Amino acid sequence: MRVKTKVLAIANQKGGVGKTTTAINLSASLSLASKKVLLIDLDPQGNATTGSGINKDSANPSVYQVLLGDSSIDTATMRSQEGGFDVVPANRHLAGGEIELVEIEDRELRLKKALCEVSTNYDYVIIDCPPALSLLTINGFTAANAVMITMQCEYYALEGLRDLVETIKRIRSSFNKKLQIEGLLRTMYDPRNSLTQQVSDDLEEHFGDKVYRTVIPRNIRLAEAPSFGLPAVSFDASSRGALAYLDLAREVMGHNS
Ligand code: ATP
Ligand code: MG
To answer: Would you list the domain boundaries of the chain?
Structure first.
């Protein structure tokens, strides 16, 4: 049995801010550091599944059956061969599943309960949340020890953070007292953009050392890798994007040592 499993939900209700890219590449980078990792795809888009080299349409059972109690998490778990980590896949069935979830008992606790069976097999469980503060994301927050917020440094970014932080506070006072904000990750970072720099400075001022020192640059290799079903750290290990995620993994492991 492991001393302590870190369960990390990667979230932001804003779409397209690098959640899934981070979930895949952080999972692969931690695996390269010999950590045992489970990636849970909680998004009906199934991008974390596809980007890990798994055919989402043939994934059955998937996280949908796990949440509804129709499958154990163990049975639904697949392997990302190239990434070196395990995956609980998702696909479009999960969109309907969210509506079915509303009707059932302990609807916010389904993932947490399922995870109890297996989490001690892993050093890290990484949860890729959908772009909404929905029941799926709440299941992610209830199951997690901590939340990693990914964000692009643009004008409305800070405004969206307020709602996210409020939701985390609500979950802390209801389902998960110990939920922490693990950190804020700046993604798709372009230092030549002066607005980026300004938002980034504001972020550091508001959140202090909660902002990861590692910054993920805008890098085409990160965007190309998923179409090959590969994490960028496998697809092109020397690319700037891959190197940044390897740094992030070191920073995350540093927080937990
Ligand atoms: P959604 O909210 O839809 O789930 P997301 O927050 O998970 O989106 P991603 O899917 O990771 O965001 O990224 C959105 C798009 O931007 C994708 O096409 C991805 O390949 C690309 N992308 C992510 N990070 C980077 C980066 N650092 N540099 C360049 N492209 C990136
Ligand atoms: Mg995503």
So the answer is: 6-255
The residues lining ligand 1, judged by C-beta closer than 6 Å to any ligand atom, are 15-21, 43, 45, 47, 131, 187-188, 216, 218-219, 222-223, 226, 241
Report the separation in Å between the CA atom of 208 and the middle of ligand 2, taken as the mean of its atom positions: 26
Phi, psi at residue 249, to the nearest 5°?
Answer: -60, -40
Of all ligands present, the nearest one to the C-alpha of 41 is 2
pTM value is 0.97
What is the CATH number assigned to the segment(s) 6-255? Answer: 3.40.50.300
How many Å apart are CA 223 and CA 226, to the nearest integer?
7
- The neighbouring-strand residues paired with 180 are 146
pLDDT in tens, 47-77: 999 999 999 999 999 999 999 999 999 999 9
- Spacing, Cα 143 to ligand 1 middle (Å): 24
Nearest-angstrom CA–CA distance, 10 and 148: 5
